[in-house]
Amino acid sequence: MKKFYFIGILLVVLVIFSSMTAEQQSLQHFLQTTLSTKPFEAQLSQLAIPYWDTIVSVDERGYFAFVEFLIRKSAHFLMFATIAVALLQFRLHPIIVLIIAFGIALGDEFRQSFTPGRTMTMQDVWLDSAGAVFGIVLWLTYSNLMQQKATSR
User: Fold this and answer.
1) Which helix H or strand E contains 133, and what residues bound it?
2) Do residues 77 and 131 lie in contact, with contact meaning Cβ atoms separated by under 8 Å?
3) How far apart are CA 20 and CA 112, in angstroms?
4) For 58-84, what is each residue's pLDDT tens digit?
């Protein structure tokens, strides 16, 4: 039963965050206060990420907006890695977990398209799915290591 609660909580958190406007989710003030010295600015300035028919970079958006972009996309990736691991607890085949995670990502992006200032993009669906693949690979690797450890005793 705890498995159902955990996946339910993850999905509720996902819906809450995707229901927020970009302004409501903004980390700009927090980042400006916390990272006022702009750590790693030189290194981050070397990155240019193609995203939604544009290039996202420090030069293009500014340091704090770029860091926020990285945090938001990392959060998507890690959220879907966590969702995949939670789904694996139901002993579903990894391909089924990936299909479910893809469906959740697609549904989340579609639902998000109704939020003012937010858009639906397949790039986010692919990013979320990559996070799910990461979670699956991590879980399978961990499970195999635990099995090998148990059989070697």
Assistant:
1) helix 122-151
2) yes
3) 9
4) 999 999 999 999 999 999 999 999 999
Other CB atoms within a 10 A radius of the CB of residue 7 amount to 19
CB atoms within 10 A of CB 75: 13
Read off the pLDDT of residues 15-57 as tens digits, 9 standing for 90 and up: 998 888 878 888 989 999 999 999 999 999 999 999 878 899 9
Host domain of residue 18: 2-151
DSSP per residue, 11-76: HHHHHHHHHS-HHHH--HHHHHHHTTT-TTHHHHTT-EEEETTEEEEHHHH-HHHHHHHHHHHHHH
Residue 141 burial (CB count, 10 A): 10
What's the whole-model pTM score?
Answer: 0.89
Number of domains in the chain: 1
The label of the residue with tokens 């927020």 reads 20
